[in-house]
Automatic annotation (TrEMBL):
<dbReference type="GO" id="GO:0008270">
    <property type="term" value="F:zinc ion binding"/>
</dbReference>
<dbReference type="InterPro" id="IPR013087">
    <property type="entry name" value="Znf_C2H2_type"/>
</dbReference>
<feature type="domain" description="C2H2-type">
    <location>
        <begin position="32"/>
        <end position="56"/>
    </location>
</feature>
<keyword id="KW-0479">Metal-binding</keyword>
<protein>
    <recommendedName>
        <fullName>C2H2-type domain-containing protein</fullName>
    </recommendedName>
</protein>
<dbReference type="InterPro" id="IPR036236">
    <property type="entry name" value="Znf_C2H2_sf"/>
</dbReference>
<keyword id="KW-0863">Zinc-finger</keyword>
<keyword id="KW-0862">Zinc</keyword>
<feature type="region of interest" description="Disordered">
    <location>
        <begin position="1"/>
        <end position="28"/>
    </location>
</feature>
<feature type="compositionally biased region" description="Basic and acidic residues">
    <location>
        <begin position="7"/>
        <end position="17"/>
    </location>
</feature>
Amino acid sequence: MASTNSDKTDKPDKPVESYDEGLPKPPEPKKYMCSLCGRKFETNTALVWHNWNDHN
């Protein structure tokens, strides 16, 4: 038996730009590039960990 309101939730409608908390967000451009090997990272913290782990 098909439900007529299967695509509705009890949450209010959200604008298109916002995402549900459980869904992955669209990839953002990676802003931080490793000067030693050229790999790019989304956060400075990821870049710092990469430098510590891969170039130490």
